[in-house]
Amino acid sequence: MISMIYDIKYRQRVVDFLKEGHTQNEAKAIFKVGITTIKRWVKQYLEVGHLKNKPLTNLVYVDESGIDEYLFREHGRAVEQA
User: 75: which residues sit within 8 A by CB, 6+ positions away?
Assistant: First the structure.
């Protein structure tokens, strides 16, 4: 599966197109976006009132000084230095 990140203005154009009374299938054909993506944008717009990117989750931020400790803890080994 290929993940695409669409510009917020592009997402808004699609939602505005739908608000004008066009169908999701018409939007799919014109904007070259999958129906599932369109449905997700509409749901987000209706629930939160905007189409901004959702914050990324499950990211691990590691201070550079703690990389070896993190890798050893998570993977049971340290990374060999080049």
Answer: none
Is 55 part of any domain? no
What is the predicted pLDDT for the residue at 18? 97
Number of domains composing the chain: 1
> What phi-psi label fits residue 34: left (phi over 0), alpha (psi between -120 and 50 degrees) or beta?
beta
Domain range for residue 12? 8-48
Asked, for residue 15, whether it belongs to a domain, the answer is yes
Helix or strand run (H / E) with residue 41 = helix 35-48
Q: State both tokens at 7.
A: 């510009």
Are the CB atoms for 12 and 23 separated by under 8 Å?
no
Would you give per-residue pLDDT tens digits along the chain (82 residues)?
566 789 999 999 999 999 999 999 999 999 999 999 999 999 999 999 999 887 766 666 656 777 777 777 777 765 565 5
